[in-house]
């Protein structure tokens, strides 16, 4: 089991670093052409890339050690960092879901606010309101969900973390995506009824589907981890948080860092063109093969 966890974790980190690194490089190359909505995708790529670079290697090293590597300091470092980046990713996904109601000027403000709120809320355990502890499997650290049973202030922090920063954003994502799909369907039906076929309609559909897939993937990846954490909040025994039953939802949740770049390249034609240009400059033969496959 440890070998499987190590291989899955290492493969996920490498794929995430490669994919999100390409997204960031391509975004920099076309920074003058980017529209406001793409800034949220870049912010999400920054979250995924830095999380895999700065924190997940510590978890991989702990897999080699078969226990958490380091003491309380490294656990706080890992838990604090992953919680900041996790909240920022959640807020960014929620902003992507309501992109139709944001303009270019507000998107930059949303990105800054996401980092600020995530950092402030994640810092409270450093001052005694909540704490960061190793997860049951011992290969990563997170919020001490079991502190719900220790004190009122810790219970309040756990409930707020789960409801305000997990449940509310997920509900917002789901409701927004339903409304986006309805508007896209209504818009497409109206133009089709009038016999109008425009590139704008096709672009809007692909953009909306890209945002929908990103949001759906994020919710799907984190749903098992959220359910397990929720069960652990309200049960004192370890029946719902046995190590074998906890590690797989945790690994599945971290897979959300991997597939977003593939979604970008599939739905965004400009990203694919920039990728071919980038490959052509480094490896002309590979670029020609990629062009023929496309």
TrEMBL record:
<keyword id="KW-0812">Transmembrane</keyword>
<keyword id="KW-0297">G-protein coupled receptor</keyword>
<dbReference type="Pfam" id="PF00001">
    <property type="entry name" value="7tm_1"/>
</dbReference>
<feature type="transmembrane region" description="Helical">
    <location>
        <begin position="246"/>
        <end position="267"/>
    </location>
</feature>
<dbReference type="GO" id="GO:0016020">
    <property type="term" value="C:membrane"/>
</dbReference>
<dbReference type="InterPro" id="IPR017452">
    <property type="entry name" value="GPCR_Rhodpsn_7TM"/>
</dbReference>
<feature type="transmembrane region" description="Helical">
    <location>
        <begin position="155"/>
        <end position="175"/>
    </location>
</feature>
<feature type="domain" description="G-protein coupled receptors family 1 profile">
    <location>
        <begin position="19"/>
        <end position="264"/>
    </location>
</feature>
<dbReference type="GO" id="GO:0004930">
    <property type="term" value="F:G protein-coupled receptor activity"/>
</dbReference>
<feature type="transmembrane region" description="Helical">
    <location>
        <begin position="109"/>
        <end position="129"/>
    </location>
</feature>
<feature type="transmembrane region" description="Helical">
    <location>
        <begin position="40"/>
        <end position="64"/>
    </location>
</feature>
<feature type="transmembrane region" description="Helical">
    <location>
        <begin position="207"/>
        <end position="234"/>
    </location>
</feature>
<feature type="transmembrane region" description="Helical">
    <location>
        <begin position="12"/>
        <end position="28"/>
    </location>
</feature>
<keyword id="KW-0675">Receptor</keyword>
<feature type="transmembrane region" description="Helical">
    <location>
        <begin position="76"/>
        <end position="102"/>
    </location>
</feature>
<dbReference type="InterPro" id="IPR050125">
    <property type="entry name" value="GPCR_opsins"/>
</dbReference>
<dbReference type="InterPro" id="IPR000276">
    <property type="entry name" value="GPCR_Rhodpsn"/>
</dbReference>
<protein>
    <submittedName>
        <fullName>Opsin 8, group member c</fullName>
    </submittedName>
</protein>
<keyword id="KW-0472">Membrane</keyword>
<keyword id="KW-1133">Transmembrane helix</keyword>
<keyword id="KW-0807">Transducer</keyword>
């Amino acid at each position: 089991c440890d070998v499987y966890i190590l291989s899955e974790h290492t493969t996920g980190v490498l794929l995430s670093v490669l994919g999100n690194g390409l997204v960031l490089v391509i975004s920099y190359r076309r920074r003058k052409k980017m529209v406001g909505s793409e800034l949220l995708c870049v912010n999400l790529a920054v979250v995924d890339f830095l999380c895999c670079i700065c924190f997940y290697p510590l978890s991989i090293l702990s897999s080699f050690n078969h226990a958490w590597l380091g003491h309380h300091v490294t656990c706080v470092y890992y838990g604090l960092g992953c919680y900041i980046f996790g909240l920022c990713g959640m807020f960014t996904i929620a902003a992507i879901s309501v992109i139709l109601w944001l303009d270019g000027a507000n998107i930059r403000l949303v990105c800054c606010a996401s980092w600020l709120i995530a950092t402030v809320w994640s810092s409270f355990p450093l001052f005694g309101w909540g704490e960061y502890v190793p997860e049951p499997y011992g290969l990563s650290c997170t919020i001490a969900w079991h502190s719900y049973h220790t004190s009122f202030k810790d219970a309040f922090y756990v409930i707020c973390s789960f409801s305000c920063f997990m449940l509310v954003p997920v509900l917002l994502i789901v409701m927004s995506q339903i409304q986006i799909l309805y508007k896209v369907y209504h818009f497409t039906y109206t133009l089709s009824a009038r016999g109008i076929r425009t590139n704008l309609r096709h672009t809007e559909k692909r953009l909306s589907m890209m945002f929908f897939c990103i949001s759906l993937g994020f919710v799907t990846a984190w749903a098992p981890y959220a359910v397990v954490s929720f069960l652990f909040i309200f049960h004192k025994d370890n029946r719902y948080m046995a190590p074998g039953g906890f590690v797989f939802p945790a690994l599945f949740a971290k897979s959300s860092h991997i597939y977003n770049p593939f979604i970008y390249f599939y739905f965004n034609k400009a990203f694919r063109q920039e990728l071919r240009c980038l490959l052509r400059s480094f490896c002309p033969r590979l670029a020609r093969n990629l062009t023929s496959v496309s």
